[in-house]
Design brief:
The protein is of the alpha/beta class. It has nine helices and seven strands, in the order ααβαααβββααββααβ. The protein is globular and about 55 Å long.
Length: about 290
């Protein structure tokens, strides 16, 4: 029998990244749904402020993309929101398709693996579509308010870079602009910390097939798990404690330390579920479902 997860659960880049980082973290967060009163990052106040600013920036850009007057949106913004928003207005990629522009779109695609059937969902900051049929071009734009831009080599390994284009291609047949091929899709990250240096990943049929195989392997591992023992802790090394355990709310429960990791060493890309701009708690009402 597949692993029993909450009835409204849909796999996302956040939950999959948690599993890849540490299977036990996935078990505690998504199976037991265990809340644990521990800080993720210290100092807490500064980290919380960064998260709030990130959420505010997302709302600003969403409203700007929806057509609200940019001059009105810019009024009274506190630092650094004023600089972030000005940078976005000035350095928004000029080559984005303009025929269809959607913001904060949630898409879902069914995925059947040997261990059962499940759903994979993604929330997109922006999807820009242009052209017709064979000439169609689709750009996924994801904006990041990290303190520093994430290196391309790291982004390439992240589940978000896999999940977002995969879900879009799988769900595209049910979308207003119609089915798209992987070759027509591009995933692009835009950083407030480096507004003139977006990081782009072009998609392909070979990559789509490889991503499907990788997702099948991960989801089979997860869905075949029966109890906590099937979701082991990440190997206890100094490097793993520094990268993962010190920023995990369950670290004391796992005997991996007590104090929260330093904000200076925190990599938002490692913990997307800890970031308000990427956290995904999908419900059935939110997800654009396709029939199994």
């Amino acid at each position: 029998m597949p692993l029993e997860l909450p009835p409204t659960f849909a796999f996302s880049q956040s939950s999959l990244q948690s599993y890849v980082n540490c299977p036990r973290r996935f078990w505690l967060a998504y199976v037991e749904e265990l809340t644990w009163p521990a800080l993720e990052v210290a100092p807490y106040d500064e980290h919380e402020q960064l998260l709030r600013r990130g959420a505010q920036f997302h709302r600003l850009v969403e409203r700007a993309e929806a057509g609200l007057p940019k001059e009105l949106l810019s009024q009274g913004l506190a630092h650094p929101l004023d600089e972030w928003f000005e940078s976005y207005l000035r350095h928004r990629p000029a080559d984005l398709p303009t025929e269809i522009v959607e913001v904060e779109r949630v898409l879902s695609a069914p995925l059947a693996v040997e261990a059962g059937r499940t759903r994979l969902a993604a929330r997109y900051d922006l999807i820009a579509v242009g052209g017709d049929d064979e000439d169609r071009r689709v750009v996924i734009l994801d904006w990041k308010t990290n303190q520093r831009a994430t290196r391309r080599s790291i982004l390439q390994q992240r589940m978000q870079t896999l999940v977002y284009p995969f879900v879009l291609v799988e769900a595209s047949a049910g979308l207003p602009w119609g089915p798209v091929s992987p070759e027509q899709v591009e995933m692009r990250y835009w950083f407030t910390a480096a507004p003139t240096e977006p990081v782009a990943f072009h998609y392909s049929s070979d990559l789509h097939a490889a991503n499907r195989a990788k997702l099948n392997n991960i989801l089979n591992e997860i869905l075949r798990g029966e109890n906590r023992a099937d979701f082991p802790k990440v190997v206890d090394t100094d490097e793993n404690r520094r990268r993962f355990c010190s920023f995990c709310v369950y670290r004391s429960r796992c005997d991996r330390g007590i104090g929260a990791g330093s904000l200076e060493e925190f990599d938002e890309a490692e913990f997307p579920d800890a970031d308000l701009e990427d956290a995904l708690d999908f419900t059935l009402e939110e997800v654009l479902e396709l029939a199994f």
